[in-house]
Amino acid sequence: MEENVMSYLDPESVDTIPPGVLAYIGDAVYELYVRENLLKSGLTGERLDVDLDELHKEAVLRVCATAQAHALADLESFLMPDEADVARRARNTKVGRGPRSMPVLDYRHSTAFEAVIGYLYLLGRGARLDELVSKALSLTEARLAESNRNPKDKE
Q1: How many domains does the chain have?
Q2: 4: number of CA atoms within 13 Å, CB side?
Q3: What are 27-67's pLDDT values in tens digits?
Q4: Is residue 5 situated within a structural domain?
Q5: What residues contact 64, with CB distance under 8 A and at least 6 apart?
Q6: Is residue 2 part of a domain?
Q7: For residue 114, what are the domain limits?
């Protein structure tokens, strides 16, 4: 059985994929990482001890545009040149405005973050994808913990 539905692409092929499409697949890949991470943290013994509504709320906190925009900002100096180029192209492309309740810059930066994730996924760079997502999730968890300590930041 193949490792994923799509066979891995060569860099030249991936470079021809529009940034919005990279973000589309990256969004799904990142959400899967987030959900797996939440499930791992909810495992107690042999049974999963979590409330599904709470699990969903926790996932949304981690995959929302603002959280992804912060993750990209935190990781920019960590990106390889080709990844930074993908992020730049995605951030500057016209992919829509996003929800009116969301700042436009958050939407653009989250699209850039998702495009990098999609880029790495389509290239089959699993180790680099794991490394980047692991750092993003650690930084996001730290940010969420800090905002829980400082409830005024939520307003």
Answers
A1: 1
A2: 15
A3: 999 999 999 998 887 655 556 666 788 888 989 999 999 99
A4: no
A5: 110
A6: no
A7: 11-147
Q: Answer whether residue 90 is part of any domain.
A: yes
CA distances from 129 to 23, 84, 120, 124, 148 (A): 14, 14, 6, 9, 28
Specify the CATH number for the domain of residue 48.
Answer: 1.10.1520.10
HSE-CB for 103 with a 13 A CA cutoff: 9
Q: With H, G, I as helix, E, B as strand and everything else as coil, classify residue 44.
A: strand
31: closest CA among 137, 145, 138?
Answer: 137
| Segment 113-143, tens digit of pLDDT | 999 999 999 999 999 999 999 999 999 999 8
Which ranges in the chain belong to alpha helices (H)? 11-15, 19-42, 52-63, 65-75, 81-92, 104-123, 126-149
User: What is the reported pLDDT for 39?
Assistant: 85
What is the reported pLDDT for 64?
Answer: 92
Closest CA to 110 of 153, 142, 63, 78: 63
Q: Between helices 81-92 and 19-42, what is the axis angle to 10°?
A: 110
